[in-house]
Amino acid sequence: MKLKEVDRTAMQAWSPAQNHPIYLATGTSAQQLDATFSTNASLEIFELDLSDPSLDMKSCATFSSSHS
To answer: Which UniProt keywords are present, listed alphabetically (predicted)?
Structure first.
């Protein structure tokens, strides 16, 4: 059963389990071609909201850089 999904090709890390709300950080590396054909590095923070019935996770913050 799928609860939530993030359509990213990226490394990910969860916030500590005892913290609420729960966040997921995803990061990509510069100079690596991804599914969107971007070669920028990016860091994106998502909030896990299980009360929302959609599969999407809400993006809370995004940072992009052309440097790795």
So the answer is: Cytoplasm, Cytoplasmic vesicle, Membrane, Repeat, Transport, WD repeat
What residue segments make up the domains of the chain, in order of their start? 9-63
- In Å, what is the CA distance from 32 to each residue of 6, 10, 17, 20, 21? 19, 10, 31, 33, 31
CA distances from 30 to 34, 40, 59, 68 (A): 10, 5, 20, 5
Helix ranges (H only) for the chain are: none
The CA distance from 49 to 6, in Å, is: 13
